[in-house]
C-alpha cells in the first residue's frame, strides 16, 4: 500500500472492499463498466484525507468507510467525464470507460457515480453540511470549464492557472478533510486547519502532476507525458517559459496553429521549456504550498493523525 501507517492502511482496505461490493446496479453493463474503473485502483488519497481527518475526532467505523467511499466515487466520476473531454484512451495503465465502452456509456457511468456518491453522503452527512460536497462538485465543473476556455491561450497568467487548479483539483481535497473532520465532530479550529491543509495539498498535487507532464518517460501515475501541451493546455512551467522567452512563446504558438503536428517538434519545445527555468519556477511554487500545508499542521493537536498528514505531505514530491 501507499501508506506506511497500519491503522490508515486497514481503513483504506475497508474502503476498497466497500467499493468492490456495494457499488451496484441492476444494469449489468453499468456494473461491469464501473467495476473496471473502480477496480483500477490508485493511491486513494482523497479517502485517506477523509479518514485521517476523522482521527482528530470520533466517528463510527461503518460511517467512516461509507464517507470515504463516497468521496472516492465523486473523484472517480470526475475522472470518467474528464477522459471523455480529453479523448483519453488510458488511465492508470488501463483502458478508460470512454475507450472501452464509448462516449455515451462513459457519461452514464460518471452520472451514476455522482448520484451514488451523493446518496451515500446523504445517509451520513447532516443536511447543513452536505453542501460541502455539492459545492465541491460544482467548483470542479467550473474548473474544467476554465481549462476548456483557456485552451490555446498563450498569455495565461499565474493567478489564472492557480484559480483553475484550485477549482479542478484542490477543492475536493479540502472537502475531503472538511467532511472527515465535521462528521467526526471536530471543533471549528481543527476543521478549518484540516480544510486549508487539504486545499494546499491539492494545489501541490496538481502542480507536481503538471511538472511530471514535462518529464520524458515519467509514467508513474499512469498518464501519458506531454499530454497537456499537445492538447493546448498551458501549465506553470510553460506559462513561465512563454512569458520570459520570446522564442519559446513563438514556437508554442506556431505548434498550436498547425493542423499536422509532429512529435519531434513537440519534444523540442518541451526540451526548451525544461531548460528555460520553468521547472525550477514550478518547484519554488510547490515548496511554497508545502510550507503553507505544514503551517496548518502545526496548528493541529499533536497526535498520530498529525504525523500521518506530515508523512503524506512529505511523500508528495517531484
From TrEMBL:
Needed co-factor(s): Mg(2+)
GO biological process: isoprenoid biosynthetic process
UniProt keyword annotations, A-Z: Magnesium, Metal-binding, Transferase
Organism superkingdom: Bacteria
Pfam short name (any one): polyprenyl_synt
A molecular-function term among this protein's GO annotations: prenyltransferase activity
Family statement drawn from the similarity comment of this UniProt entry: Belongs to the FPP/GGPP synthase family.
Name of the featured protein: Polyprenyl synthetase
Organism: Ruminiclostridium papyrosolvens C7
Amino acid at each position: 500500500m501507499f501508506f506506511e501507517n497500519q491503522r490508515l492502511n486497514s481503513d483504506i482496505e475497508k474502503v476498497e472492499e466497500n467499493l468492490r461490493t456495494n457499488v451496484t446496479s441492476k444494469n449489468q453493463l453499468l456494473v461491469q463498466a464501473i467495476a473496471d474503473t473502480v477496480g483500477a485502483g490508485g493511491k486513494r488519497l482523497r479517502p485517506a484525507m477523509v479518514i485521517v481527518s476523522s482521527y482528530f475526532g470520533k466517528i463510527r467505523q461503518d460511517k467512516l468507510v461509507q464517507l470515504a467511499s463516497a468521496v472516492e466515487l465523486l473523484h472517480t466520476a470526475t475522472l470518467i467525464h474528464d477522459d471523455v473531454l480529453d479523448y483519453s484512451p488510458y488511465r492508470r495503465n488501463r483502458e478508460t470507460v470512454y475507450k472501452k465502452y464509448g462516449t455515451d456509456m462513459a457519461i452514464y457511468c460518471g452520472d451514476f457515480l455522482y448520484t451514488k456518491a451523493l446518496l451515500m453522503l446523504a445517509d451520513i452527512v447532516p443536511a447543513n453540511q452536505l453542501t460541502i460536497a455539492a459545492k465541491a462538485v460544482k467548483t470542479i465543473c467550473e474548473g474544467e470549464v476554465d481549462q476548456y476556455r483557456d485552451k490555446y491561450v498563450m498569455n495565461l497568467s499565474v493567478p489564472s492557472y492557480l484559480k483553475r487548479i484550485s477549482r479542478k483539483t484542490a477543492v475536493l481535497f479540502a472537502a475531503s478533510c472538511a467532511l472527515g473532520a465535521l462528521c467526526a465532530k471536530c471543533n471549528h479550529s481543527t476543521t478549518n486547519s484540516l480544510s486549508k491543509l487539504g486545499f494546499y495539498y491539492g494545489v501541490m498535487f496538481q502542480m507536481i502532476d503538471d511538472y511530471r507532464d514535462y518529464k520524458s518517460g515519467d509514467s508513474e501515475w499512469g498518464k501519458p507525458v506531454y499530454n497537456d501541451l499537445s492538447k493546448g493546455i498551458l501549465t506553470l512551467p510553460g506559462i513561465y517559459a512563454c512569458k520570459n522567452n520570446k522564442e519559446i512563446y513563438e514556437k508554442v504558438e506556431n505548434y498550436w496553429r498547425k493542423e499536422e503536428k509532429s512529435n519531434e517538434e513537440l519534444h523540442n519545445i518541451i526540451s526548451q521549456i525544461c531548460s528555460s527555468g520553468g521547472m525550477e519556477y514550478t518547484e519554488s511554487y510547490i515548496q511554497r504550498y508545502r510550507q503553507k500545508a505544514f503551517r496548518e499542521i502545526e496548528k493541529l493537536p499533536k497526535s498520530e493523525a498529525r504525523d500521518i498528514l506530515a508523512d503524506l505531505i512529505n511523500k508528495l514530491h517531484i
